[in-house]
Amino acid sequence: MSDLIIDVIKIIFPSFLTFMVGILITPILARYMYKYKMWRKASRSHENTEAMSPAFIKIHNEKGETSTPRVGGVVVWLSVAIVSVLVSVLPYIFPGPMAEKLNFLSRNQTILPLAILLFASLMGLVDDFLQIYGKDLKMSDGISRTMRTLMVILIGAVGAWWFYFKLGNLSIHIPFDGDLALGLWFVPFFILVVLGTFSGSVIDGIDGLAAGVMASAFVSYAVIAFGNHQIDLAAFCAVVAGGILAFLWFNIPPARFYLGETGMIGITVTLAVVAFLTKEVLVLPIVAFPLVVTSLSSTIQLISKKYFGKKVFKIAPLHHHFEAMGWPSHKVTMRYWVISIICGLLGAVVALIS
Question: Least buried of 67, 92, 242, 289, by fewest C-beta within 10 Å?
Fold first, then answer.
């Protein structure tokens, strides 16, 4: 069997296995989510003036928000964690070169993104639990935005430290030009990109929207990593995509649960780390274009309201603006998916030919 076929199997098999594990564990997880009522106890329409605007109330599914579990991201990272453990112990159960080849855990490619995924997701899970059960602690809004940002910065700092001292990987690739060594500037740049990618988590607002966009982004970086001969990293990206697709299987409208902070924080931050590992961080805005424009729409709206006293969008983020224009939520979702696939393909092509 050729090395190419073995590499392809190494990428596809764990991804398919993660999807199947996600499908199998979801009914168990969902039962507990509904049993313990893991949803918001109060709708966002009571939190601030933006959420109480007529445009928001018109499109907002208040009943769904207060009756649908918000910790569905557990499906993603738990299925990834289970498969990561399985492939790591497989050589001990079935000794042989193929079992060893299927193990995608490696110090220089996948240990960091896996650790970041799990840590950031657990941090998000704490935030979700506070939003669900924190009423008595007067923390029903969860971790404050400032504190959440600081925690993401800390995660970025740890990741930058790993790159700087453990990997010695301090350069990025400039498309159609070459590698650029950043030296000490790599650390603040890394943190800035992690924080910027995390800001794209505002895209999680319509059933299936965020999951479809993020699955496309991870598949794109799986292709990029494969082209860079980073087979372990390509397998990891495919595994994350498999976990997201398992979540998406149950998130087709009407959603059985939402990604929540435990899903979006872990996935977005991990995507930024993966981009640096491939050195193709400059194509991240192309691959994750829907995240970029959605995050920018919220920033533009905030600045315009504060300094000019008027709105640019009917309501921000951008996907809610389209809903307020009269687009059905499923149309917004499908068009975001189409754009995500196109941008993912374009980003992969730019990375591979440059």
Answer: 92
Amino acid, single-letter form, for residue 168 = G
CB 142, CB 131: distance < 8 Å: yes
Q: Which residue has the tokens 């309201």?
A: 305
Burial (CB < 10 A; 0-12, 13-18, 19+), residue 326, is exposed
CA distance 135 to 137: 5
Residue 43's pLDDT is 62
Q: Which domain holds residue 246?
A: 3-353
Q: CA 19, CA 250: separation in Å to the nearest integer?
A: 12
The DSSP secondary-structure symbol of 230 reads: -
Residue pair 276/193 in contact (Cβ under 8 Å)? The answer is: yes
Confidence (pTM):
0.94
User: Backbone phi, then psi, for 251, in 5-degree steps?
Assistant: -110, 0
Instruction: Give pLDDT, residue 352.
Output: 95
85-117 burial string, b = 16+ CB within 10 Å, else e?
A: ebbeebbeeeeeeeeebbbbeeeebbbbbbbbb
Cα angle 147, 292, 222; round to 5: 100
CA–CA distance, 112 with 221 (Å, rounded to integer):
16
Residue 202 near residue 294 (C-beta atoms within 8 A) = yes
The reported pLDDT for the residue numbered 26 is 96
Q: Can you count the helices (H) and strands (E) in the chain?
A: 15, 2
Exposure letters 198-215 (e unless 16+ CB within 10 A, then b) = bbbbbbbbbbbbbbbbbb
Rounded to whole angstroms, the Cα distance separating 92 from 39 reads 41
Q: What are the C-alpha distances in Å from 159 to residues 29, 84, 240? A: 30, 20, 18
Please say whether the beta carbons of 11 and 222 come within 8 A. Answer: yes
Q: How far apart are CA 336 and CA 255, in angstroms?
A: 17
For residue 49, what pLDDT is reported? 45
* Residue labelled with tokens 């009943």: 63
Average pLDDT of each block of 10 consecutive residues along the chain (354 residues)?
87 97 96 90 53 60 71 97 95 85 93 97 94 74 86 95 91 94 95 95 90 97 97 98 96 88 96 97 97 95 92 92 92 96 97 94
